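Working notes for the structural subgroup meeting. M.R. asked for a predicted model of this chain before we commit to crystallization trials. I am recording the input and output together here so anyone reviewing the notebook later can reproduce the run.

Input as submitted:
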Amino acid sequence: MPANRTKTGQFTKGHSGNPKGRPPLPPELKEYAMQSPARLRAIADDKNTPMKVKADIEKWFAEMYYGKSAQQVMLDGEVNNTVATVVKFEGELAKWAK
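Returned structure, recorded in token form:
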């Protein structure tokens, strides 16, 4: 077991699995990212751009500004710690849960 781990394998207090942190992004990528909203706006404003692409761009801008809309999930049942808990999907979710 490494010296920065406890007997259970967790990191000891004050230690990290990534002490140097996330590496910095290349400056070219930062510049490209800063220009992308203007490029997307130009694509969306182009009269030759298909309506589906325009809608996707507008949706992206809305989600970046307002955040993605919440998805409601309704659960019903009891949790018993002595038995495995089973989740059953119904309706539209059922076809994706298989």
